[in-house]
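<context>
A single protein, sequence plus fold
<sample>
Here is the protein in question:
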Amino acid sequence: MTDISTDSFPPGHGRNWLRLRTLTLLRWWAIAGQASALVVAEQIFRLDLEMGLCLLVIGVSVVSNLVASFVFAETKRLAEEDALRVVLFDMLQLGLLLYLTGGMNNPFSILIVGPVTVSASALSGRSTLFLGVMAIIIVTLLMQFHLPLRGADGAVLEVSDIFRFGNWVAIVIAVVFLGVYARRVVQEMRTMSDALQATQMALAREQKLTDLGGVVAAAAHELGTPLATIKLASAELADDLRDRPELREDALLIRDQADRCRDILRSMGRAGKDDLHLRRAPLTALVEEAAEPHVDRGKRIRFDHGGGWADPASQPTVLRRPEIIHGLRNLIQNAVDFAQETVIVETRWNDARITLRIMDDGRGFPPDMIGRLGEPFMRRRGAAPDPQRPGYEGMGLGLFIAKTLLERAGADLTFTNGTDPAGALVEVSWPLAAIAIPKGAEAEGLGENRLISG
């Protein structure tokens, strides 16, 4: 059984991936935009701005970017706290620039939402909440405290109070909505990425086992001939050395050890061929192989193949793919973990489909979570630890891996609660052509290892 622990993916494990260069490039774009807006406002619209103070504020950003570019390597990645300081600096710089250019009368005040969106996409929820509160505080202060925006004739340019209030409400809503929206989307993307990585790890490990079995079977086959030759030569030497007992004992020892190597390789070769190297197997054998690691875990696993009426000889021969075995194994593990006493594995087939039903007599799936089963890192909020599975945190990664691997093999999965027994029920169904070997091709085999005996 290949087990992928959620400890491999601790919360927040990927937050130190934001490069300093990314933030400095964004700041260069902001600096270019701020400088262009000041030039257009003064030269084209003839606004009377505190140009010296505004350029000083922009200059601070330029200096900070130059320092970051020359002091730190381009590949430097920021920790959570460092990235928060950089984004907070940009927010305060923008707030000060807005203070100098009319506060909430400036239509560019909406740009205060930008740092919050960056934080929601790259930083933790706590940092995003802090920056969101700071943005709301800044725009609230700018409602009352700002330098007036004057035209060329000295007249103060102001929008009506209701429009300023509406602008404030729009910014607050944008901070909350875009922050939550961006955070939610990025979290789902990270969660899916982590879960898919875990799935690939599980499949890679299962594939390595399959490849290892092939190597073992091939080694057993190829080493059979030289071992038989060693045995034959040592036996002939023993016959020729009857008058020299001490040398004859060495020759007999060589023969005995060659026999031992032959027996070991036969065993390994049989295991490799029968267990791992085999690329096809009867459907029921594949199902029972998937369940084998959980047979002796204190719960009874009852197999019901064909419903008691189907001819066992009519069962399809299927591809023995690692993703199918691992996916079914995860589903059976989940059933065994939560069952009271019994797990039932039903296998059905006809000319069109193959269907498996895995049922347990436990408490079943929580009704409010059935629609979400198969999502990665799913946690039922407020749920008490399950006494049947101490230490289980309910992350949902095992079901996600099983669902992903089986769907990759062409299966359709349904999660529900059964009636007899009244526990969890998982139905896995394939079109027959998706995994079955066509009739007439089942007899193709690997053949026997041909070992020469002495």
User: Anything to note?
Assistant: The beta strands are 280-282, 300-305, 317-319, 342-349, 353-360, 412-417, 424-431.
